[in-house]
Design goal:
The complex is a heterotetramer of chains A (about 170), B (about 200), C (about 400) and D (about 375).
Chain A (H helix, E strand, L loop, with lengths): L1 H27 L3 H21 L3 H25 L15 H21 L6 H5 L4 H9 L3 H29 L1
Chain B lengths: L5 H19 L27 E5 L13 H5 L5 E7 L5 E11 L8 H5 L5 E3 L10 H4 L1 E2 L1 H4 E3 H7 L1 H22 L18
Parallel strand pairs in B: 1-6
Antiparallel strand pairs in B: 1-4, 2-3, 3-5
Helix pairs in contact in B: 6-7
Chain D lengths: L11 E5 L11 E7 L2 E8 L7 H5 L4 H9 L6 H16 L5 H30 L4 H21 L8 E2 L2 E2 L5 H25 L3 H7 L7 H7 L4 H5 L6 H4 L12 E2 L6 H25 L11 H5 L9 E9 L2 E9 L7 E5 L1 H6 L2 H5 L4 H11 L3 H5 L1
Antiparallel strand pairs in D: 1-2, 2-3, 4-5, 7-8, 8-9
The chains are: A mainly alpha (about 170), B alpha+beta (about 200), C mainly alpha (about 400), D alpha+beta (about 375).
Chain lengths: ~170, ~200, ~400, ~375
Amino acid sequence: MPILEMAAKFGVYAVMGVILIFALGVVTLRNLFHCALCLAAALIGIASIYVVLQAEYLAGVQILLYVGAVVTLVIFAIMLTEHLAGKTVRQNNSQSPLAIMALLGFMALIGTVIVKTPWPVTPAALASKVSVMGLGKALMGAYVFPFEVISILLIAVLVGTVIIAKKDTPERS
Amino acid sequence: MTVFGWGVFKGMMVTLKNFLTSYYRKPDEGGIFTVQYPEEREKKIENFRNFPFLVYDETPGKIRCVACGICERECPTKCIHIEMELDATGKPARKPAVFDIDYGLCMNCGMCEEVCPFDSIFMDHVFEITAPERQTGLVRHKDALLKANEYFQKIRPTLASVIDQKRKAAEEKKKAAAAPQPVPPPSTGGPTQGAV
Amino acid sequence: MIPPMLRGIEFNVDMIFVTAKAWILSLLAQFLPAWLLVLASIVISGVVILCLGPVIMMYLTLLERKLLGRIQNRYGPNRVGKWGLLQPIADGIKMFTKEDIVPANADKIVHLLAPIVIVVPALMVFLVVPFGERMTAVNLNIGLLFFIAVSSITILPIFMGSWASRNKYSLLGGMRTAAQMISYEIPMTLAVVPAIMMSQSLSTNTIVLSQVGDYDLHWYIFTPWGIVGFIVFFLCATAECNRPPFDLPEAESELVAGFHTEYSGMKFALFYMAEYMNAFTLCAIAATLFLGGWQGPFLPSWLWFFGKTFLLICVMIWFRGTFPRFRVDHLMGFAWKFLLPLTLLNILLTALWQFTSNLAAWFWSILILGISLWTLVKLNRTFVPEKRHYPMGN
Amino acid sequence: MDLKNTENASTLEINFGPQHPSTHGVFRMIVQLEGEKVCGLKPIFGYLHRNHEQIAENLPYAAIMPYTDRLDYVNALTNNFGYALTVEKLAGLEVPERAEFIRVIMAELARIVNHIAVIGFMLNDLGAFFTPLLYAFRERERILDLFETITGSRLMCNFFRFGGVKRDLTKENLATIQQIVDKFPAFLKEFEALLSQNEILCMRCQNVGILSAADATNAGITGPVLRASGVNYDIRKVDHYSIYDRFDFKIPLGEKGDVYDRYYVRILEIRESLKILDQALARIPQGEIINKKAIPFLKMPRNFKPPVGEAYGRVEAPKGELGYYIVSDGTPQPWRYHVRAPSLINLTALEAMCLGQKVADAVIILGSIDIVLGETDR
């Protein structure tokens, strides 16, 4: 089925193009709410690429965590801060030459890294599909210590945000 | 019962019971009593009062109303308009030439039926009344209001029978009184027991 | 002469749809190249789902109005068609012909996008629903994770809808919906975990297969943790698709119609369709997880599946006919302070269930459940009705 | 509207406008919200003002009776009762025994109809999708059909006359009333099973919109709302008007004065009304139904001229104390005619109850006060 592979390849390129457009949208759009939506669309695009590469678990997690949680929180933040959603944000400032310089430097760095590293696609790598069961065992087996530390860190962060948010409400009411 | 979900459970049992009984129960014990309106009709209630109508005995000419104007004066919403008919010599002919009731104004309160001394105006059972527009469409003129006594018997049997007995009694009394000396003008109708 | 495609499949009612598809493919095989056949089979199941979704939604609305009518001692729609069977079509036409009003200062693009984006996840979830034996559209081995991920997207379009219509009521409605869906998503996900633990896999098909039993049905609902998991999952499902008693966002009596106040015509129909399709898929997943999906003694498998889902949908409609609405803080309190601890405890129970023997497991589970429910009720004093005394003056 | 612009701009101003699904009739509330909490509420009414009192001052006494049906259109008979009572006090007419019994029977039936409808509508505001309302209406239908057979119209009864009633209760009417009264407790038991212990209802109604006894008496609140706050004040027991002192019935009182108490006090009041109806049906005497002296005025309402003077008659309407203040100057038309509408006065306490509650509660509190706009706006 060579035609199917070729179609899948074009499909991936098309999706990558769409992701680029949405990513540009995130950066350039004036209305903040539209930027958040473009971010969501870009993340879903990335998830669809994972599906094409047969990493369904990663795609599911990507949608669940990024689109379901992160973008929702971003939108909550936009909605809850007063009048932010409506206002359009001023885009350009006077530092554009400096920005272009930094961009070129960054492109050069990334370019060399891409060119240098060998991308070996050994048949073994292709065959060894890590099953969800394997992931679970690894998390609970070898990596259980980092897993617990991260959860403690998250709890600390949660408590911190509650305290910060709580502090300013008494003055206002 | 302090089990947490008990009240919620009881509520669901009530709705389930109503759901099931609506299938097999008779209408008035929890079954479905919906009346499919245009096809089926609710059973007629004799005492129901809607817009008034005028009664005539045998022919539309022999209308009972003598255009005395009491109902026009007593109507709370002032929706009746009467004009006396003048005969050839200009004397009032105790007949209404014009008798309009504005159904748009009437609130079918039944006051006209109560105060009418000549038993000529009664409340109807017809309630499906439409008109293209308010001002002229809903105003009913005399010929539209006139209905036969048989119709009155049909829709309100008990009241009609009482009224007819009273009128027959008044007829005999008048005929008996009329035999010895000339006929006095008809009495203004004895005090009735109000619409019984 | 059985066409090559059909050779392996037996001809009983159970497999009627599978054979139908195989037969169509065998017909197409004569004049299509091989690789197009793969595409064709995808297209066939895709088309089936695309028709199944809206048709289910249409007749769910009719079913709901009929059942509610019967609960309230009246008939329900019976004017259009024999028993009101054509009523959904009449509603559909009405939705098409109704004028589609876009508020003046609304954000046009987002206002248009919201209904579209809400229908996509509602339809995508149909992929992993196992309608019958070998009748799952796509046999993903991460079926449940896909289901949860996709149903978490529905918060986004609701935000888009409520914010784009620039109206106070829909803004309030949108905020409430998002808060409700987020806080009920977590107990729902945790309620699913016991079923995954017992069947050792995320794929919906293996979950159903792990509940098979020749005559003593091994459905998960017949275990202590199964009952608790089912009740919590079902409550969260009703909350997830905004159906009473959790239908706060469309609280007619307060906020007119919540986030879809400013929608009319076809856009409103899409919101309406997404809600009903969500209800169907959530009931289907509940049936798959706890009621043994398409397991059942004699009838064909897809009949069992639709029977169980139909039953669960009737329970949802029953809820709608009986209960008043939760208030916002009760809603949140119920999810965070009651359902969440219950699901965590439930996961403990399933772990316990695996190690001890059958009878002892039952005893221990009921004991732990009893104690924990008692403490939970004691902790949430506000949910327990006070005893009231009414003196009689004269 | 010139509401001062609150300084912290985070309050959201919502207009529960005249066309709102949960306001009972054309009633408007401007609610200022801080997030979910109500921090300001301004009731605006007058959309249903029909100039009732001005019209009444240009009509003879008998012609005003059909207009009083339109005051509290949920139970017209209680309005007639109040008006007839006041005019009889003015003109000094006694009412024969049988007529008094018929009046009490009809008034108590009207009270049941009102309380049932109110509970149904309140549950509708709470979100129960029309089920309790339709159960309540199924029972109400029986009583309204009875009203139609007796008075001629389901809602606009126009049944009371000065010195008695318009029509006598026949044997079948009394039999149907007895049947309704016997079947009602079974329905009430089912209705209570559906609602009273329902956890969601209790959560939504208990400790919501609390009105203390002191506030209630200061605001002049009367009716079930006052009794739910624990004040034992029922005009049937205070004034002993008509023949209420011959029946023994109790006055249910609440303790906390929140929405749940008002709901439950109304159910207990229905039970008390059923007790009154039982006793009245058992002891109704024979006799004429209208005072002999008042019969001529039926035919000639024009010459019914009560003596110069003024009278204030009040009745325990299902919503509170319904009073009529009539000043007569000897002519067939009242010189001054004023109605004390319980709904209007009960509305004054709405803001006090709603401050600090959630939006969803403001709607139920309005529902629990049970206002009817026909009466409030007159």
